[in-house]
Design a protein that fits this description.
Blueprint lengths: L3 H12 L5 H10 L1 H9 L35 H14 L3 H13 L4 H4 L4 H14 L5 H9 L2 H6 L13 H11 L2 H5 L5 H10 L4 E2 L1 H4 L4 E3 L5 E3 L12 E2 L9 H4 L6 E3 L2 E3 L3 H10 L3 H17 L6 H13 L4 H11 L16 H11 L9 H12 L21 H15 L11 H10 L8 H13 L5 H12 L11 H6 L3 H12 L7
Antiparallel strand pairs: 1-4, 2-3, 5-6
Helix pairs in contact: 1-2, 1-3, 3-18, 4-7, 4-19, 4-20, 8-15, 10-12, 15-16, 16-17, 20-21, 21-26, 23-24, 23-26
Length: about 525
């Protein structure tokens, strides 16, 4: 059985972005239940005031009139940079862990929605997922129904009564709410998909008519478009058919006839389909099992035991699909979450690998730039934020550690650990000194002490004795390759060259790729 500190450390790896040993010690003194309540009730914790409430455009072109909304000027890089820095600095880590989960669950890519207004629409989806991160699954699902990025991504903008498009209705059942397993067990049928698609006819956007990009006059007198149109919230963009046909474009494209879904005959609209799934058996049970299992797999391990899925499904049904209640129960009452099978069983997602590394090294004040950190680094690692490969999201698991993706991790770790006093994105001497001080070490720290502390801080479980000894020998080796004596004080005077090398080696170790 894990000790109380080991439980807290495991919990913080899974429900947050990890915690250093001194942080675990402080949390363990509060007790597991208090820590879980702080994590899941994160709204009670004031957010870091240095985090902008929304993306700040990198460039405000000359000639843009005063008062032009910033949202009209942001691009994909601005949105990705803002989210990455939010993950890095947040005091509400479970919230961002859940936003990352929903981003994968409701996978939507800039590749298809970027033109026009894609950056703004993906920001709105990201904010929606944050609003309902641990909220009610029903409310989040209905929000996704009318999300501009999703309406475009799954072609519901082309879903009309004269030519129903089944893409969104199909993925709503197969991926978002019921799962393909429910189809195999008779939870829904192909005619159910076709009929549900009719309920979403006319649900689309008016961006081609009223939300075209603003045109401004630049400093040279040339008229140029901004990145996004003038709408400031999704309600100004989305067109939803009213209950009765009022002659509007949305109403004219909507099928007001009766539809038969799960044998129920009614004039359903899109939100009715969500309610039907979550209120009617056996669909309600299928939805609860799908969501409970997927959340457990995200936070614990793959292919959980049937009784674990049964328990989580029961919690979801009892709480009317309250995600916060499910997570609190999982972290407190499901013993399998803290089992040996769960410990270090999940391969780190690239975004988690980067963010957790920086946080564990005490580098929260780094400013990430998506042009490099997302568009190049995370892309090379296999997870380009806002650019999932398809509607199923990222495949994950062992697919995170292909040869090229592993080398991308190791190369990033090498750059991070290499000394460069002029680059705040590198590990600084002050940050290394702080880490050693937090471990209780002075300039007299031995090689064995430094290895053991950094292993405990980063990898967070013991290495094989021969691996540990190899790392100790590495610290003690001089430039000639001879093993001598390691001195933290001497290493400090050479910009911690050996300690930096040790950090790089640990971040590239196979053991560090799992958590």
């Amino acid at each position: 059985m894990p000790s109380p500190s080991e439980k807290i450390s495991h919990l913080m790896r899974r429900a947050a972005f990890g915690a250093a040993p001194h942080e675990v010690e402080n949390l363990a003194a509060q007790g597991l239940e208090a820590v879980v309540d702080q994590l899941v009730n994160y709204e009670q914790i004031p957010e870091d005031p240095s985090i902008p409430a929304a993306p700040v455009p990198r460039n405000r072109p000359a000639g843009v009139p005063a008062g032009t909304p910033d949202i009209a000027l942001i691009d994909f890089v601005d949105v990705a940079s803002w989210w990455m820095n939010l993950m890095l600095r947040t005091r509400r880590p479970l919230c961002e862990r859940m936003v990352l989960f929903w981003h994968d669950h409701f996978a939507t890519s800039v590749e298809k929605v970027n033109n026009p207004n894609g950056a703004k629409h993906l920001l709105w989806q990201n904010q929606l997922q944050r609003q309902y991160a641990v909220g009610n699954f029903r409310d989040l699902s209905k929000g996704i129904n009318r999300d501009p990025a999703m309406l475009r991504w799954l072609d519901n903008v082309f879903n009309t009564k004269g030519s129903p498009n089944e893409n969104y209705a199909r993925e709503l059942f197969e991926i978002f709410m019921l799962g393909f397993e429910a189809f195999e067990q008779g939870g829904y049928t192909e005619p159910d998909v076709q009929q549900a698609a009719r309920a979403f006819t006319g649900w689309g956007t008016n961006l081609l008519r009223t939300d075209n990009p603003i045109v401004y006059t630049d400093g040279n007198g040339n008229r140029q478009p901004t990145q996004n149109g003038p709408a400031l919230n999704p309600a100004q963009v989305v067109q939803i058919p009213p209950a009765n046909n009022n002659g509007s474009p949305a109403a004219n494209n909507h099928d007001y006839g009766n539809k038969t879904v799960f044998t129920v005959v009614q004039n359903f609209n899109g939100d009715d389909i969500v309610d039907l799934v979550l209120d009617r058996e056996p669909q309600r049970t299928h939805a609860a099992r799908m969501l409970g299992k997927k959340l457990f797999e995200y936070f614990a391990y793959e292919d959980p035991e049937p009784h674990v899925v049964d328990h989580l499904a029961a919690v979801l049904k009892r709480t009317n699909f309250n995600v916060r209640a499910l997570l609190r129960d999982m972290f407190l009452n499901v013993k399998e979450f803290y089992s040996e099978r769960a410990m270090f069983a999940i391969t780190k997602w690239p975004a988690y690998y980067m963010i957790s590394t920086l946080r564990l090294l005490g580098m929260q004040n780094v400013t990430l730039d998506a042009r490099i950190d997302n568009n190049q680094t995370l892309q090379a690692m296999g997870q380009w934020l806002f650019w999932p490969p398809d509607v199923f999201g990222w495949p994950g698991r062992e697919d995170w550690i292909t040869t090229s993706q592993y080398f991308a991790r190791a190369n990033w770790a090498n750059t991070l650990a290499t000394f460069n006093a002029a680059d705040q994105r590198r590990l600084s001497n002050a940050q290394i000194s702080d880490m050693l001080a937090q471990g209780g070490f002075t300039n007299t720290a031995t090689a064995e002490q430094v290895v053991d502390y950094l292993v405990a801080r980063l990898i967070q479980h013991q290495l094989a004795p021969e691996v540990r000894q190899t790392l100790v020998d590495y610290l003690k080796k001089n430039n000639s390759g001879q093993i001598g004596n390691y001195s933290a004080n001497t290493d400090r005077s050479s910009n911690f060259v050996k300690t930096r090398g040790l950090v790089h080696l640990l971040l590239a170790r196979p053991e560090y790729q799992n958590y």
